Amino acid sequence: MIKENESCKTTITKLTIYTKNDFNLVSKSCDSEEDPSIENFITSKNNKQFLNKYSMDGGSWPQELAAVSIYKAKKPVLITLHTQKWCCYPSPEGIVYSIDLYNIIKLNNGFKIMPVTQILGDNSSGLDGTSDEVMHFKLKDISSIKKWLDKNYK
Prior knowledge:
The chain starts with a strand and ends with a helix. It has one domain. The radius of gyration is 16 Å and the shape is flat. It has one helix at 142-152, and strands at 2-4, 8-15, 23-30, 37-44, 47-55, 64-71, 77-86, 93-107, 110-115, 125-130, 134-135. It is mainly β.
């Protein structure tokens, strides 16, 4: 579902973490001159928690929330993947990928989130394109992120 006003667009993605469609990821992208940004929240019945915010003034095009998914583990992991296109010499040229990971912990009256992005180490972000040399970022989609988690996340 997408809602728009004059400078912001809100996208709501339904997530199934414990039961069908029990959570939503709300992503608000604003193109305002003062603070161009994208903010993400996770919500359930009566709870709303902030996840992350990316500034959109660094690249050639705005940041985008490219993908959202749940990795099923003992503690479910919410995956957000943001991308931003960069262009033209002398700046890097290509797509910058940024991954955020969060454990979702069910509580009696809601949930809490715990950032666990650090488990990715240097794989949490990267450029797929050209800087001073050609660079290839391997975790460009949910499938490759989940494969990495299968091998490395206990």
